[in-house]
Model the fold of this input.
Amino acid sequence: MSFSRFLRTLTLALKSVMLHKLRSGLTMLGIVFGVFSVIAMLAIGEGASSQAQKQVLELGATNIIVRSIKPPDETSSSGQSGQSFVLRYGLTRKDLNVISETIPPILGVVPVRELTQEVRNQQHTLNSRIVGSTPEYLEMNHLKMAQGRFLTDKDLDQMANVVVLAYETAQVLFPFDNPVGRPVQIANRAYRVVGVTQDRTASAAIGGSLSGQDYNKDVYMPILTLQSRLNTGDLFIRRTQGSFSAVSVVYDQITLKVGDTDETTDDRDLVIPTAEVVRETIRNLHGEGKNDFAVVVPLELLKQADQIRKIFNIVLGSIAAISLIVGGIGIMNIMLATVTERTREIGIRRALGARRRDIIQQFLTETIVLSGTGGLIGIMMGLLTPAAFVGIQLFVDAYVMDKSTGTSDIGRLFSGMEPQVAVWSLPLAFGVSVAIGIIFGTYPARAAARLDPIEALRHE
Amino acid sequence: MTAVARLVDLTKFYDLGAVVVKALRGVSLEIPEGDYIAIMGSSGSGKSTLLNLLAALDRPTQGQYILNGRDTSQMSDNDLSVVRNSDIGFIFQSFNLITQYTVLENIEVPLLYRPGYPPITARDRNRCIDVANQVGLGDRLDHRPFQLSGGQQQRVAIARALINDPAIIMADEPTGNLDSKTEEEIMQILTDLNNEGRTIIIVTHEKSVAQRTSRQIYMKDGLIAGEGIFPG
Ligand SMILES: Nc1ncnc2c1ncn2[C@@H]1O[C@H](COP(=O)(O)OP(=O)(O)O)[C@@H](O)[C@H]1O
Ligand SMILES: [Mg+2]
Done:
């Protein structure tokens, strides 16, 4: 088919479609919503997946995170008033040593002990998270230095009284001058600031398994310094309902980096089996049933997120497919009515020399123009999905926000979703709508072409 | 004069299951180039059936119809369409214009289906305008059929029949829906076309129409019952 003829057929079809604007518009609706839902669905899925991906990369795709958790059984039994005892739980130095020495794929081990303390520089104070760790913490958490240096092995060995401030901490404590080399006070002791890290946005929590981390308000110090100077020998006294209990935790978290030195296997394949070995090892060390630690594998979270996204896609995909089929049937129905309505026109064209295939082409093109235009409108609506989500968020923030807490459940639900329109879904959606036109347009077009010219001319 | 069309013992039966309607029972006819024929006869005598065969809208049950030296009786649907497009100009009693098209667009319709689908050129368009002028519609090119009188609509149909320069123009009761004054005008146009050398066949009931033609064929019960020639 030559281009000029194609153009002619298309113009003819557009003309017919425009002749009954309302009818054509209503006929398209099924396709419009079908295509819109396909694109919106894929955009939401894509957004969720890229967010999960980002979070996992932040946590480290080849990392295993082991956290100390307060065992639930002991917590309830410690509720008896008037008793005092020391509750020891969580990850120990022995755990750390055994893991790093006996499990080969583990290349790096970064222990962390966290406390919340007030940090002060003259009149400036900030309630900070004090993170005791090792020099590897920097790389493991993808932090970068803005000024000075991070902690070193020497700091660690010497239990040096040094700290590294996170970006915001530095801004609050030293609003006017360079913190490097200056002292800060934590629990009445002075620590020398040796560096400041770069700004880094908080990472959100994945599926509630890990609390989101706001790195910007941290203070980093050598873990041994924290344990000896701030923690008074791992002991940590708490007062609950009139009774005193002492809690002893050595490490809040140990991050393990998994890798294969020979570079032959994909490091990611090692993560899950290694995590299993780690879990077994610690369970053996702690004794069965103690349940005072948890192993979190970011990669597993990614897989779970992918799994959820797949189910989501299948469910919404089926709904979209049904909507597209219904839309196609709607178009077919209208086209069959159109053929009847235009029987005489078909007869005239046939008498003037139109062949069967000219008639087929005419009606098929008309159907494709209907479904294709519906598809384009649906695509345009789909492209607005991310903006619509922003709009919903703004609306919710403005009108539905819970005044007492400053947030709303609905708002939080939507702020967690950042739809990203998948570029490949646009030609796909258009192709599908054209295909719907072809599939559901063929029968009416053939019915039109089958008409006997003389009979068709007699119609009415 | 050479024959544009020749019918040899043409029959057309309609098998309705219970009965077989013998609409044509053996018609033979020679149509020389430039002929001007009126086909007359009572209702149901087979005039329309004969004209539909002549216009390649249908195939005969038996017999031959040779148009421009080619036998159409065994042609495929596709080939018949080509014949209708290139060799036949058809004018209907009820005009049969495409309602959503303008006058000019209606005249162009046969150009859309030319063999090989050549693009419609500026020259084609000029020809449409020339033909419209020829039938006296030069100032109505942008009008739509509902804005035109019956006589004007029939002029559009005549222009449309002329656009592909056909071998024969067929008209089935072209003035059946028109008043006598308009009939007069339409017949004048057809007569002028015949005077230019075009072959024209008209099915009609009106004596006034038949008198305009140079040859009258009378049909009865699916056969040619007689033929008379009025002096031009
Ligand atoms: N499609 C058809 N099916 C059955 N019978 C038909 C059909 N077309 C025409 N006839 C019959 O053939 C005969 C001739 O019809 P027609 O050619 O229309 O006559 P006229 O035009 O002279 O009035 C009539 O008896 C008519 O009923
Ligand atoms: Mg008739």
Chain A touches chain B at residues 1-2, 4-5, 8, 15-16, 19, 344-345, 347-356, 358, 453-454, 457 (CB under 8 Å). The two ends of chain A are 33 Å apart (CA to CA).
